[in-house]
Amino acid sequence: MAERGCPLEAVPLPAEVRESLAELELELSEGDITQKGYEKKRAKLLARYVPLIQGVDPSLQAETRIPGPSPATAPAPRQQKPRPSHARDERFRSDVHTEAVQAALAKYKERKMPMPSKRRSVLTHTSVEAYTPPGVPVSSRVSSKIQQLLNTLKKPKRPPLKEFFVDDFEELLEVQQPDPSQPKPEGGQMAVLEGELLAVGSTWPPSLLAALQQWGTTQPKAPCLTALDTTGKAVYTLTYGKLWSRSLKLAYTLLNKLTNKNEPLLKPGDRVALVFPNSDPVMFTVAFYGCLLAELVPVPIEVPLTRKDAGSQQVGFLLGSCGVALALTTDACQKGLPKAQTGEVAAFKGWPPLTWLVIDGKHLTKPPKDWHPSAQDAGAGTAYIEYKTSKEGSTVGVAVSHASLLAQCQALTQACGYSEAETLTNVLDFKRDAGLWHGVLTSVMNRMHVVSIPYALMKANPLSWIQKVCAYKARAALVKSRDMHWSLLAQRGQRGVSLSSLRLLIVADGANPWSISSCDAFLNVFQARGLRPEVLCPCASSPEALTVAIRRPPDLGGPPPRRAVLSMSGLSHGVIRLDAEEKLSVLAVQDVGQAMPGANVCVVKVEGIPYLCKTDEVGEICVNSSATATAYYGLLGITKNIFETVPVTAGGAPISDRPFTRTGLLGFIGPDNLVFVVGKLDGLMVVGVRRHNADDIVATALAVEPMKFVYRGRIAVFSVTVLHDDRIVLVAEQRPDASEEDSFQWMSRVLQAIDSIHQVGVYCLALVPANTLPKAPLGGIHVSEVKQRFLEGMLHPCSVLICPHTCVTNLPRPRQKQPEVGPASMIVGNLVAGRRIAQASGRELCHLEDSDQARKFLFLPDVLQWRAHSTPEHLLFLLLNAKGTVTSTTTCIQLHKKAERVAAALMEKARLTTGAHVALVYPPGVDLIAAFYGCLYCGCVPVTVRPPHPQNLTTTLPTVKMIVEVSKSACVLTTQAITRLLKSKEALAAVDARTWPTILDTDDIPKKKVASIFRPPSPDVLAYLDFSVSTTGILAGVKMSHAATSALCRSIKLQCELYPSRQIAICLDPYCGLGFALWCLCSVYSGHQSVLVPPPELEANASLWLWAVSQYKARVTFCSYSVMETCARGLGAQTAVLRMKGVNLSCVRTCMVVAEERPRIALTQSFSKLFRDLGLPARAVSTTFGCRVNVAICLQGTAGPDPTTVYVDMRALRHDRVRLVERGSPHSLPLTESGKILPGVKVIIAHTETRGPLGDSHLGEVWVSSPHSATGYYTVYGEEGLHADHFSARLSFGDTQTVWARTGFLGFLRRTELTDASGERHDALYVVGSLDEALELRGMRYHPVDIETSVIRAHRSVAECAVFTWTNLLVVVVELDGLEQDALDLVALVTNAVLEEHLLVVGVVVIVDPGVIPINSRGEKQRMHLRDGFLADQLDPIYVAYNM
Description:
Elements: H1 15-30, H2 35-46, H3 58-63, H4 96-107, E1 117-118, H5 121-126, H6 141-153, E2 164-166, E3 172-174, E4 193-194, H7 208-218, E5 223-228, E6 234-239, H8 240-256, E7 259-260, E8 263-264, E9 271-275, H9 281-293, E10 297-301, H10 312-321, E11 326-329, H11 331-336, E12 355-358, E13 382-389, E14 395-401, H12 402-416, E15 423-426, H13 433-445, E16 449-452, H14 455-460, H15 464-472, E17 476-479, H16 481-490, E18 504-507, H17 515-526, E19 536-542, E20 546-550, E21 563-567, H18 568-572, E22 586-590, E23 594-595, E24 600-604, E25 619-624, E26 631-632, H19 636-643, E27 661-669, E28 675-680, E29 684-687, E30 690-693, H20 694-704, E31 710-722, E32 725-734, H21 740-758, E33 764-768, H22 783-792, E34 799-802, H23 804-807, H24 823-832, E35 839-841, H25 851-856, H26 860-870, E36 875-880, E37 886-891, H27 892-908, E38 917-921, H28 926-937, E39 941-945, H29 953-966, E40 969-974, H30 976-982, H31 985-990, E41 998-1001, E42 1022-1029, E43 1035-1041, H32 1042-1056, E44 1063-1067, H33 1073-1086, E45 1089-1092, H34 1104-1111, E46 1116-1119, ...
Parallel strand pairs: 5-16, 9-10, 9-11, 11-12, 15-16, 15-17, 17-18, 18-19, 32-33, 36-45, 38-39, 38-40, 40-41, 44-45, 44-46, 46-47, 47-48, 60-61
Antiparallel strand pairs: 1-62, 2-3, 4-24, 5-6, 7-8, 13-14, 14-26, 19-20, 20-23, 21-22, 24-25, 25-27, 27-28, 29-30, 31-32, 33-34, 35-52, 36-37, 42-43, 43-54, 49-50, 49-51, 52-53, 53-55, 55-56, 57-58, 59-60, 61-62
Helix pairs in contact: 1-2, 4-20, 4-21, 7-8, 7-13, 8-9, 12-13, 16-17, 20-21, 26-27, 27-28, 32-33, 35-37, 39-40
């Protein structure tokens, strides 16, 4: 055994010290002790033997273990002994990898990565330090983390990429080109490797069943199988006589005693499931041979433990595809199966209906003396089916024929030199793979005695198999490297065991490149206990090819074992490069022996045509032999590809007339014709142009922390496809005592180690709590189930790190803005192409009404006086409360008189002069309307303001105060209740009370008339100010003149056909925009009756609005998106109840959502569908469109064609282009027109930069010209330079005379095939989104709503979402509708969705509680408020993930 420090070789050490050193070394490699502890203990052990080097620092001695130059060049101590011949080359040491990882980490300068922050709910609310005052974003905790994140992203890892492939249309995804300097295979074409001939001796029985019959009748007392319990006691030994008689009994019962409607239940060739626990090899073996004797096909599966086991549905698919209807089991096993309420075995998820048969002795019938089974167990018929789970999780049945079964037993007998009456200790699962082939089949052919060690015993006592080898003097043992590893950990203090009886120790997973370290460490310790090095026989197998290769014991004439140290970088390019000089990235592999007797082996290219590989190239190993499986049962398509491969030479000539079977193993043929395996196809991840093996990545992760942060073997690595490439995901279980800092530290180091050793980035690293990963039936992780859970957002990690910035290198290049074509050229271009300029208008106004009436209706105060005089008792307004009761009604005369009182109070009490501004702070109701007209009556300018929220004064009161100040209001009119609120203690804390202007409460003002009602000198005099906070956080007030006010009312009256006999229902906030106009202005102008439903009342009664519409038979109704959402969410399931209460919506002709955004199709459609049951006409729902410069541009109204919907390509939209596509085509986005353009309104589409007119179906800014546009901003708070030209823009070319108002919205006009009311072809306006809201990322324009839609679809727990940018990083805030511990499931899915659908890398994912994203009364997200809250650390997030 090679020791660490060179000088030690000079001192002969006693055996027990060498043993203690070996144990110590193992402890270190396992991470059970620290490096420091190791050095301390080691120095102590050696202190007596190394007096010469006592002064030397032990850590220096340790340094020598880094594999250095060959011993020849090292200065040798004088009396050095020759190394024993079995001394291992240092480079193959199992801890070399750990050293490489540690060295790699040391090379990294610790790049500080921002640590994700988790909620400490208690801390956040109590700790003073944690609170950052608002408005100090620069120094906040969040900003410093973002700064850290930006620093880590400053050096993006991006290989030079030359070419692109076109993904459909706009987005050119970069496709990584092979690096010209990468290693390429240089060897000649490999030759097919031929195994030795299968020496079919006359002593071999003609078939397996013939062997069973022979031993059962001639050697009935010979032991066949010994079963052990969990304490290691032999509970039963099955003799060959018993096996034969019980199998016969079972065969007879199956064939003769099972009937279905007097027909036999089973016929030859039927498949039967075998459901036996791992602790019962005896009953399994009886069942297996019983089926063979009855000519039935056994399908062994795992015992289902719950109704929803990991992979249970896939097992159901297997049983279904094999047509299994009967399951065999034992009494004890059946009792433990999950039961239905009837007491029957439960139906498992995805399983076909099964009949369960218990096969314990008492349930079977003894066959008559003269009964003999007619089984012919030779030929091409299927003997048994073994299950196999693929990388993607699907479970298929691999069919093995009788001929293959016999050939496999013969080949194994020859290769392993098995002889009669030998004892074999089997630690493997006897239901499949090597455990079945050696321990149930080949053993019976050779009359061997198998001692079966159950998994539960191995867990309780990992040494049990060694003790049994000892006790039974076993000649052969069948183990996995995991079993060797476990026994190493447990062997301390066990002195009396000896492995000298073993001539064969088969390592069944020798194909796993990392088994070499277990073999070495095991030999290291047990050589002193009789284990001979040549006994170790690694082998390679696959479900399709069965045993592929096995190392022969030397007495059978095999060549000596070989090993190779390969360059990982070479392997990732598929070539074999021996790595002579010491490098970090190496993989040490051992041979898995020679090809099987009677087999031909070759290696072919993994993808495409199966060309033979070159001698120094890694490919998929293929086998041609009579001992391979024959098909995937019932699945012809995939069978052909795997079982009937014809390898060809470089010239394309087939190398054989017999097909080969693909093994799924990656490897090459080495010296002495030995087979080497470097990985499995199932674990292969192709990232860019390089290949990586999941097992290698696992090993690197495990080597990172010798302190054992994660449990060994509780780690899964797999790849997921994101954006046309494999992305590596690593999921590990962390120890329960690990702190969050430890976790993050470990994760960062794993990322660095994998990056350094494999030169590949990990896309996502997730840690889950201990014992939460789904387990495979016999230990280990069920990787495909982990992957499934990851993709479904069901993994529930406790820490997540996602690194899209480093991994995703195939994003298209950021768009470079091309020099724009000039406006004149555009017009010429459009003319040449025959395209019309995009211009549209509503009906003309001037011809519709005689000028007298128009003049009479020029000022709203005049209209109200005229109505009060001519129709005094006509009802204008009805106000409802939450119960549906009318709380107040107002006739024309009542409104006129209330307005007079308000005007008198303003002049006498507040002493205001004409032109003074007055803030109206009222809840939605009639008082607000009266106060508005009161202001107009005395020449004051009203400003409607939403009152502060009593439960949330600190945030709502400052906005009220700001509007009052910015609008320069000289007086505040309000109610008594609000007056008290404004003067309350809480209000004083938020706002300085002394700075309010005069506050007048209008609840009890005296009944007074005004001497004369003010009449404006000209229609252009200011009528009112309309203030609103935009979604980007800008407070802007616009000026509405008397002319614009009456033009607005006239336009709406014409579009909606409003007359005094009409009733409309309004459920809107009455403070700004069209909501205000409909609530306060239109009824007075048109004389119709408005049923007012205050939106706050819906909190107490969600059905109030719909009930009102039905009760008052309103043909026209208006609402906001928030109202519609409240109804869709709160009443969706209650339509039947509403119908019983008499709610009937068939009266509605048009239901309009008042909005200043792109129509929300999903919401309006689901609303229409939900309430179709209540009679809501399918085409009634539409949306309006207005903005700050003009509050009503489009509105569906009662005439004109229905709104049309078009589908545009979302990718073209990012480039400011419109490309119409079919519904359902990829990347399609539905846009619906926002109602019809109002009478008197003209719309044109202008280029955002050149300001030239654009053609039909071109995307640009919507400009509007209309008599009811606002005349300008009164003030804009938050962006003072905001722009007079919003109201007085002119085109740079074409019609340069018309004055337009710029809406700030992108959209396009499209002429449709429909005709409008005037008989002309109808022009539809499609609004795409606000220019202010749009995000400029990677040179493209994104609309937040599109990204948010993708995020909301990513996982069912996403209740709401908002995105914004911060220092070029995309921040996604997600409201979690679910358990806090599931929050982290969203991080990866959100990142994936945005990458896939928008080609954007998410920088930060913030997960918050429902209701945190601020939403205004129109139902719009206040993204800038959210951003400010995030940067000031005020959101109390559940989790913040900073994507690396």
